[in-house]
Structures are given as C-alpha cells and as structure tokens.
Amino acid sequence: MTTGTIRSLRDKGFGFIAPDGGNGQNELFFHGSAIIGTTFDELREGQQLSFDVEPDPRDSSRSRAVAIPWASSRWCAA
Q: Tens digit of pLDDT for each residue in 7-53?
C-alpha cells in the first residue's frame, strides 16, 4: 500500500493524489469508484490516504490510484 495526500477533487467524482515522498510532479488520478467504505463526497483536499497503484487501462504509460480504503484515511494537521 502506498500513502499520499489528496491534492484536488473535481465535482465530477474524481481527483488527484500526491504520493508521499514524491516531488509533486507525479500526482495520481483516482475515480470515486475506487473508494471503499464511504462515498466520494466524504473526501477532502489535504486528507491523507492509503491506496494501491495500478497501470491506467486507458494509457499504460500512466498509473492511477485504486482500492482506497476509508478506514486508512486520516486528516492532515493544518
């Protein structure tokens, strides 16, 4: 499992996660359907999550975040 922080959320049910230890250039796409145990509406920018990474089926040169368990999420201290 990889960990990271939600950088942005879009109204259409998807967002982007910056993996921990990254340089901010390799944000991962995620779709709301990848969230396990809650809904997309419960997520917030700045929230830290655990997730798995797999190749994007639309573009094998990119990766995406999948299997995002709600129980692993935690809030960043602001």
A: 999 999 999 999 998 766 689 999 988 888 888 888 899 998 888 99
Inter-residue contact 40 to 13 (CB < 8 Å): yes
Q: Which residues contact 47 (CB under 8 A, 6 or more apart)?
A: 5, 6, 73, 74, 75, 76
Enter the DSSP assignment of 73. -
Q: What share of the chain is helix, strand, coil (3-state, %, to 5)?
A: 10, 55, 35
pTM of the model: 0.78
* Spatial CB neighbours of 36, under 8 Å, sequence gap ≥ 6: 67, 68, 69, 70
